[in-house]
Write a structure and sequence with these properties.
Layout (H helix, E strand, L loop, with lengths): L2 E6 L5 H10 L3 E3 L2 H12 L9 H17 L7 E4 L2 H11 L5 H9 L6 E4 L16 H17 L4 E3 L5 H16 L11
Parallel strand pairs: 1-3, 1-4, 2-3, 4-5
Helix pairs in contact: 1-7, 2-3, 3-4, 4-6
């Protein structure tokens, strides 16, 4: 079944959009990076983007691959970020991408298009898991887009609009590409 990645800038509304899609009955996979940060903070670990960035990148990739492999097999599955972001993060921190990551990523493909939430200063906020500023969010966004393009994905930007409009845009875009509107979000394709 279609596995669809939603990428973009941190604080750009991805998680809110994914939660709205889940509320409509679609399968979703939560952002691995935020959960990883929460886990590391709770365990007083150091695999954090502001502490041991390479350890964070490695765990982010491993957990993101696992999330892809464990995703439901029926209906559309929307991923709040993916292992491609771990590859993009390597570029941001100047870490060489391990060769096996490229092999693992090539063996697992998302359906296209990849949906992109652009940087959105008006809704960007910091919190305990997102300590960077908006400028860093823009740099991460550019790296993410570059990594998906380098991996051969088609990208479609989601407009900055009220949540209901963004949900409708995503569903209308996918329905148009699939030639029909889904009558049931978990209907097999």
């Amino acid at each position: 079944m279609p596995k669809l990645a939603i990428t973009g800038a941190s604080g750009g509304g991805k998680s809110t959009l994914v939660a709205a899609l889940a509320a409509q009955g679609h399968h979703t996979v939560a952002e691995v990076g935020r959960q990883l940060v929460a886990d590391e903070l709770e365990a007083k670990g150091s695999a954090l983007p502001w502490e041991d960035r390479e350890a964070f990148a490695r765990l982010l990739f491993e957990r993101s691959i696992s999330a892809f492999d464990q995703a439901p097999a029926d209906g559309w599955v929307f991923f709040d970020r993916s292992f491609i972001e771990a590859i993009a993060y390597c570029a941001v921190i100047g870490m060489a991408v391990p060769e096996r990551w490229g092999e693992q990523a090539a063996a697992r493909r998302f359906d296209t298009p990849v949906l992109v939430c652009p940087p959105w200063a008006e809704i960007f906020t910091r919190d305990s898991e997102r300590r960077h500023d908006f400028e860093q969010a823009c740099l991460d966004h550019a790296a993410n887009v570059t990594a998906y393009e380098a991996a051969g994905y088609e990208l479609i930007e989601i407009p900055r609009a009220p949540l209901a409009d963004r949900v409708a845009f995503v569903l209308d875009t996918l329905a148009t590409l699939n030639g029909r509107q889904p009558s049931n979000p978990r209907e097999k394709r």
